[in-house]
Amino acid sequence: MACSLPAPVSAIESTTGFEEFAAQGGKMKADSFCFFKSCGDQTTACFTNPACLKGITCLGNCRGEQRCATQCFARFGSERLNNWLSCTLEEKECVTTGVKQDTLAFYDNPPRAVDNFEPRELVGKWYKVLGYNPKYDTYPCQTNTFTPRPDGGLDNQIIFRVPKPDGSGSWENNFVETMSDSRGPQGKASMTVEGKMFGLTFHEQWYLLGLGDDYRVVAYRGDTQQGPYDGAFVYTKTSDALLGASGSQLKAKIDTALLESGLDPSKMQIIDNACPTDATQAGASAAEASKEKLEWKDVFELTEWFRPGTLKKDSNFDPTTM
């Protein structure tokens, strides 16, 4: 029976990010001394906290896959973990692919945006009611609240929930991203976005595909060190805007905007905005962190960060069962 071996770095000339590199069979490069010399403070803070260490081993098992990583952060996320990832992956590059990351081509042919969009047309609170990419867009109970910035851009406060697989509720996430009144390097965006989420910097270009008095249709493309991503979603002023006869009329306008931009309306999924009162704050609270206990397998799985390729990827890994 034939088996596939990891691709040598020399065989991969460039990559869009960690996720693609891992999927191609690439083996990450790690500088073990970097963790303790260049990021010593962050490593000490994280390695002396069981919940933070659990987060590291959880992410190591994900191999860059975004939905898996989101669940890891929902359970184990903390500033300790964010700081450790920011230092080891971005600032000091203790772990790298060893090849050039190139995402420029990903932005070449985006959906066509409306002309003459102005940031003020997003100001206020909006509900996400439809989403395109299940890795990013379809989490329940999503609200985005935009406030003007002195530089002409916007701050976007984002709230969304990650359901707990055992049905006992969800983890609520809350963070802010900064949006600029910029067309982007290609000159095709409505706005550009930069922020940090889960310790890694992300860049996005947003394209306003359609807008009316009570709705906005948005597509986007973005990238982090994990790789590029894209999606689309629909904002409305109320969470139940698509219900009833008026909702059907609104949905027809939204579908038209999507079709004219080359997107398939049938791929848009309804977002659950029922929002029951069973949510807890995402991440490891002080009380929860003190309860976490390291097991031998956690110590063993930690070796994947210092010597990538030591462990075989588990296709059935579930972050919520750690």
Order of helices and strands: EHEHHHHHEEEEEEEEEEHEEHH
Distance between the termini: 33 Å
SS content category = alpha+beta
Main sheet strand line-up: 5-6-7-8-9-10-11-12
Overall pLDDT, averaged? 84
Describe the structure.
There is one protein chain. This protein is α+β, with helices and mostly antiparallel strands and 322 residues long. The chain contains 9 helices and 14 strands. It has helices at residues 18-23, 32-37, 40-47, 50-62, 66-76, 79-91, 244-260, 286-291, 296-306, and strands at residues 14-15, 29-30, 95-96, 100-101, 124-131, 143-148, 154-163, 170-180, 191-197, 200-212, 215-224, 227-236, 269-270, 279-281. It has an 8-stranded antiparallel beta barrel. It has a two-stranded parallel sheet with strand order 1-4. The radius of gyration is 21 Å and the shape is globular. The model is unreliable at 1-16 (pLDDT under 50).
Short structural summary:
The protein has about 325 residues and is α+β, with helices and mostly antiparallel strands. The chain has helices at about 20-25, 30-35, 40-45, 50-60, 65-75, 80-90, 245-260, 285-290, 295-305, and strands at about 15, 30, 95, 100, 125-130, 145-150, 155-165, 170-180, 190-195, 200-210, 215-225, 225-235, 270, 280.
